[in-house]
Amino acid sequence: MKVVGVDVGGTQIKAAVFDLNGNMLKSTRAPTESRLGKERVLSNIVSVIEGLFSEDVAALGVAVASPLDPVEGILYYPPNLPGFGVFNIKSFLEERFGVSVVVDNDANLYAYGEWVRGAGRGAQVLLCVTVGTGIGGGLIHGGNIWHGAHGMGAEFGHITVDPDGPVCNCGNRGCLEAMASSYFLVGYVERRLREGVASRLAPLRGVLEPKLIYEAALEGDTLAHEAFAVVGKNLGVGLSSLINALDPDVVVVGGGLSKAGMILLEPVKKEIYARTLKGIRDRIRVETAVLGEFSAVYGAAYLAIKIIGGDR
Hints:
Number of helices: 10
Strand order of the largest sheet: 3-2-1-4-8
Number of strands: 13
Distance between the termini: 18 Å
CATH architecture of the largest domain: 2-Layer Sandwich
CATH superfamily of the largest domain: ATPase, nucleotide binding domain
Strand content: 15-25%
Order of helices and strands: EEEHEEEEHEHEEEHHHHEHHEH
Number of domains: 2
Largest sheet: 5 strands, mixed
Shape: globular
CATH class of the largest domain: Alpha Beta
């Protein structure tokens, strides 16, 4: 038997077929085309799965960037999939393919993938954050995804780092997402350039992106290093509070900004060491994710393998 793992994002649908030992056999991707509406997106999801589906596929695991009910498989107004509203994607896919389907939040399944096969393999308590345009989170405890009472647990991007900080997309002020995302990184550099700070990035005002700032940091640009130091400090402050509350043995940092490696992680680790309880700080591991952009696909597939065994 085999399973298919799928990650439905606002820009791309990524998917792969796996054997029951969790080995990826074949992968694919396609544009989501979310701007063209719900029916086009559903058609694209079906098309991607059909390209991997065969009679020996026993289950599908689906990761979606959305508030959702992980038991019923109901999406609630996914922000990157306009027009979906409240939609039962589990029932839709089960009727279409005739196999069991399990659905969960993409950040949860990113964490689960890293727990099963990645940087947090086998941890008793794994805390995972994905740092990109936004900040997602996942918590694995005893091999199980922690969902909270309403399926909305581990929204680590929306803990408050600075009560007087910038307004977050959620409407709150000073959320970790508003203080440590790639959006903040770019905004910080743009603001410092407007203030007249010298940098090789100055000619790129208005078209900056994280990769360009990272490349400038590698070349020794002072402002680029400063920006990563501020983002790393803010991320470390937020993670320190989570570590003190949850006592994980491993923290995994993933997402687009994690590609900056130690340029980001060095200030994160420095802040964690300064702010976490002494009984924790010398024993915790802080790692970058290793499964890359397919982490949530892995997690979705592993969850599908789990339900075949009757664990969910």
